Amino acid sequence: MSESPTTATNPRILIVGNAGQLGRELEKIFLGFGPIVGVDRESVDLADAGQTRDLVHRAEPDIILNAAAYTAVDRAESERDLAYAINEQAPRILAEEALRRNALFVHYSTDYIFDGGKTSPWLESDPPNPLNVYGASKLAGEQAVEGVGGKFLIFRTSWVYGPHGQNFLLTMLRLARERDRLSIVDDQIGGPTTSIELARATHSIVTGILAGRFGAPEDWIGLYHMTCGGSVSWFGFAQAIFARAAELLAVKPPTLTPIATQDYPTPAARPRYSVLSNSKLQARFAEKLLPWEAALEETLQALRIAK
Ligand SMILES: NC(=O)c1ccc[n+]([C@@H]2O[C@H](COP(=O)([O-])OP(=O)(O)OC[C@H]3O[C@@H](n4cnc5c(N)ncnc54)[C@H](OP(=O)(O)O)[C@@H]3O)[C@@H](O)[C@H]2O)c1
Known about the structure:
Elements: E1 2-3, E2 13-16, H1 21-29, E3 36-39, H2 49-59, E4 63-66, H3 80-101, E5 104-110, H4 133-148, E6 151-157, E7 160-161, H5 168-178, E8 181-185, E9 189-190, E10 193-194, H6 195-210, H7 217-220, E11 222-225, E12 232-233, H8 234-249, E13 255-259, H9 279-285, H10 292-306
Parallel strand pairs: 2-3, 2-4, 4-5, 5-6, 6-11, 7-10, 8-13
Antiparallel strand pairs: 1-3, 9-12
The protein binds NADP nicotinamide-adenine-dinucleotide phosphate.
C-alpha cells in the first residue's frame, strides 16, 4: 500500500488497483489533489470480501477510484467465479462502503457488455447482452453498483491500452521484434482508448464535481460511456501503430495480413462492433477525449521518451 500524508482540507482518495494500466495513470494525475492511498493486489485481494471492506475502513476515503478488475477476457471463461468475485462482488462492497461514508465512488466498465450487433455507436440506453463471461461479470458489477446507489459514476470504456501493462500496443511492439509477419483480426471494430486519456478525463470530471460545476449529485450520478474518439479495426489499429513506431521507436514494421475473427479462434467470443457513443459524457460534463489517432501518438511519444 502506498500512502501520501493526510491534510485536513483535501479529499482522501483511495485508488484500488494502482498497479494496473489505468490505476497507474490515475495515481499520477491525482497526485497533489489530496492524500492518496493506492493499493495493488499485494496489499488487498479483492476476491476476499472481508479484505475489501476492511480496506475502505482503514483508508477512510472521500473518493474511491476503482481501477481494479479481472480483465483476462479469455481466461474468465474457465475462471467464472473469480471473475465475478472481482468484477461484481468487490465493486458492490466498495459501493456499499462509499455509500456508508457518503464518498464518491468511480468505477469502470466495458464495451464487452454489448453483443456487437449494432452498426452505429452504442448508447447507454441500448440493451446489454454480453457474449462472454468477462462481459457478463462486468455487467453484473455495473448493476451491483447501481443497486447500492449513493454518489457513483460508472465509466464504460473500450480497448484500453497505454505505456504500461498488458495491452495490444505493447504486444504489437513485442511481436514486431520477434516476427516479420503478423495476422491481425480486421472484422472487429472498436474504439482504442488510452489509460492516459481515461485518467485525464476522470480527473477533470471529479475536479468539476468537487467544485460544484455539475450541480447536485442527482444531476450527475450515473453511467457514462468514456472512450477516445473515432473507431478502427484491430488490423487498422496495428497499421497505425507501425506507421509511427518505425520512426519513434525504431521498430521494423512487420508485414500485416488482415484476417477474419473465425481465423483466430479464442475461448471468449467478442463483439464485432463495440464503438461507444460519448454524447452523454459530452453533454453532461463537456468532456471529450482525444481522437484515438492523437491518443496513440501521445502514447508512442511517452514510450519514446521513456526509452
Ligand atoms: N483492458 C481493456 O482493454 C479494457 C477494456 C474495457 C474496459 N476495461 C476496464 O477498465 C478498467 C481498467 O482496466 P485496465 O486495463 O487498467 O486493467 P488492468 O491493467 O488489467 O489492471 C487491473 C488491475 O486489477 C488488479 N487485480 C486483479 N485481480 C485482483 C485481485 N483479486 N485483488 C486485487 N487486485 C486485483 C490487477 O492486478 P494484477 O496485475 O496483479 O492481476 C491489475 O493491477 C477495468 O474496469 C476494466 O474492466 C478495460
